[in-house]
Each structure stands twice: as structure tokens, then as C-alpha cells.
Amino acid sequence: MASINGIPSFMNWVSVNRNPNLTIPQLNSVNSVRVSITTKTPNFGGHNPRQFRVFKAVELDKVITSDDEDEMSDGFFEAIEELERMTREPSDVLEEMNSKLSSRELQLVLVYFSQEGRDSWCALEVFEWLKKENKVDEETMELMVSLMCGWVKKLIEGEHEIGDVIDLVVDMECVGLRPNFSMIEKVISLYWEMGEREKGVLFVKEVLRRGIGNEDGENHGRKGGPTGYLAWKMMEDGNYKDAIKLVIDIKESGLKPEVYSYLIAMTAVVKELNEFGKALRKLKGFTRSGLASDLDTQDTRLIHDYQSNLLADGIRFSNWAIEEGGPSFHGVVYERLLAMYICAGRGLEAEEQLWKMKLVGKEPDGSLYDIVLAICASQKEGNAISRLLTRMEVTSVLNKKKTLTWLLRGYIKGGHFEDAAETVNTMLDLGLFPEFLDRAAVLQGLRKRINESGTVETYFKICKRLSDVGLTGPCLIYMYIKKYKLWVIKML
């Protein structure tokens, strides 16, 4: 058996678990690979292809195991020794030794040159030759990707320049290991997990500037990309405004983010509007309980401006998505615009998106019609309410009750109690009984209005109607005194 430095320990490592099958680390299991990268200055003359590369070596604790008690063939060790000499191109050596090496031995050659102290760029050349010879199966591809993930991780841990990480990704592309979105995602995740978020942003910008990972130019069908993934990472941490600013900044800096990043940014707008709405509702609760002072004119203006600016950003994203993505993106854009306007409480704008979705063949869920109906009812948009109620004619009794309940609650929220009382009558005409809390809210609202207008007819009629169907007690007495007039309402 041939003997060269490193081979005995390498063989001991290869035969750890005595498994006849190769165990390749999965792409998403970067943590199974521990790497240690060193830098060596190249010292070659002429036009050797290694001259412009930075050599990196990698040490793997566990990448591959074997239960084959037979030693590697002499051809394997001859190939290793010849490649170590670096007197000939790796492709020439492998071409000559091809007939003497099995598929498993070729993988082990790849692993050998990924160890600490070895010329790891030689591993890239070995992989390149395997790719050209059509000898890269799924296991070999996963092995090489895992090695590259380990190298990238070590570069980031060593606080190397972003350019070094980019160069490694470019090397991957040069040898036929295309740095698809999964690899870019790994790099972004590593920056993010290590708290190097600014570097993560710079990495994404450099990836876009160099066009790394693009196939056939802009691929509109890809559901992901570096900008969108980074924006999504920000959203996961609750930094919705940062995600919005990221996409705008990249777009306005002259780069071209993927189309789906605009949709992700629109989702960030929706989430920020939702959180903003929750904060406002909590503030109003504090105000009612006396824990906070009432909002003044300036506060109200600031709230309106903040919401309007968010909506403006969302509209910009929608325009970019439609311009760059084409008709196939219309439905999903209108859907996100609908969510934005619902969160912002913009009834007419939300209704418009419902019909746009329907026109492009993306039928909205029935509950969305009801939600928009409630918003329009709170704002007493009569024409929009009439349009939205037309679909109720062909729905089931259960859906009719749901729709009218949303309408009733919208009127209650907007303080339109006369319309709410009319809706209660409509429900009773259809044999539908409003919920107790909804009925109580209507009666309470009407009682308050009596002090303002002095009109009791609506209140009296709704009380009698509820009593007729057994939804209120038969002895309800209400007295109202105003100046010289006295009303006594008695229901027997």
C-alpha cells in the first residue's frame, strides 16, 4: 500500500462506523460540518489557474463513513499522491486514473482535499472534473454543498471581508456548483444568527450587483431570492419597518430585487399596519379609562400621516410588482392591497380590490366580503354596502346571518344606530336572531340618542319587535323628560 502524509489518519477516520453506505450531510445540516479555514499565499509562476485564488483548507470531524473492511485500492492512493505533487492539472491526473477509481473513491478524493492543511481549491477542481465527466450524483452534490457551507461559515466566523465570501460563492459557480437560492439563504442566515446584520445587507446588495445565482436573467417564477429572504428574516424578528426600508433602499439604489421581494415587503406593510392598529386600540382603551389623555390635533395628524405613509409604500411595491412581474402577479398583488386597506380601515379602497381580484380570476374568500362590508357600514358608505349585499341573495341561510351580523356590527362600531336597528329588523324578517350582545348594543345606542334628538320612535319599535319574537322581556318601561314633555313607554 502506498504511504503518504495524512493517509493513515484519513483512513482511520473513513472507517469510523463501518457502514457500507455513504452518509452524506444534508444541505440544511451545516452544523454537522466543523471547518477551520487557513490562508496560504500562492507561489506559482506562469499562468497556473491557482495563481489568482486564495487557498483554503477545511477539517471535517464527520462527513463520510464506511463499513468496508477492505482498504482503498492502490489507484486511490496513487491518485492522492499525484494530486498532492501539483505537477499536473488535477483533471489530467483524474483522467489518467479514472479506470482505477470507483465512485466511492472519487468522493473520498474530494473529501481528502477538504481536510485541514490540504489544498482545498484542489477539491473544487476535482469536483469540476467530476461534473464534466457526469459523475456527480445526488450524494456527491450534497457532499460538495456541505463542504462549501462549512467554508462559508468559517469565513464569516473569522470576520473575513464580504468580498471573500462572494469570491467563494463565485468559485462554486465556476466549478459547476451553481450557488442557487438555498446557498445564498445559508449565507444570509449565518450573518443573521451571528448578529452581523449590516454585513448581511451588504452581502445581499453585492450578490444582486454581481448577478450571482440568476438563471437566464430575471426569473419571475422564483418564489424567493436574497432580498426577499433577508426581508423575511427581518419580519420574523418583528422588524417590519426595516423589511420595508430594505426593499425600497435596494430598489432605489439601482439594483434589481426579485419580484417576490415586493410581495414580501407588502406583507411587512400589512403586519406593520396591523400592529399599529393594535397599539391605537390599546391607547384608546387607556384614554377611556383615564390612564391617558385624549389625543390632540397634532397627535391625530401624526397618526394619519404614519398610516398614509405605510399605505403609500405598499402601493409603490404593488406598482413595481405589476410592472416587473406582469399579469401573473395581479391577483396576489390585489390580495395584499386588500389586506392593507382592511388593516387601515379603508372601506372603499378595500372594496375596489375585491372586485379586481374577482376580475382576474382570484375569487376572494366570502369572509373578506363580510369584513369589507363591516368597514363600509362603519363609514356609512351606502353604495358600497348595496353592492356588497348583492352576493347575499344567493348564499345559504347561515351565510346570510353571518353577513348581516357583520353589517350590524359595522353600523354599531360607526355609531349608526338607526341603520343598525333597521338591520335587526331585516334579520328578524328572515327568521334570523341577532346575538344578545349585538341587540343590547343597539338598544343602548338608541337610548343615548334619545337625549340628543328627543326621538323615541325607533327605540320603541325595535323594543316591541324584539318583544314580539321573545327576545326581550314583556315589561320594559322607559321614561324620558325634556323641558315640558313627558314620555312614558310601557310594553306589556
TrEMBL record:
InterPro entries according to UniProt: PPR_rpt, TPR-like_helical_dom_sf
Entry keywords, A to Z: Repeat
Signal peptide stretch: none
Gene3D superfamilies xref list: Tetratricopeptide repeat domain
Superkingdom per UniProt: Eukaryota
Ranges: PPR repeats: 400-434
PANTHER family: OS05G0353300 PROTEIN
Protein name per the record: Pentatricopeptide repeat-containing protein
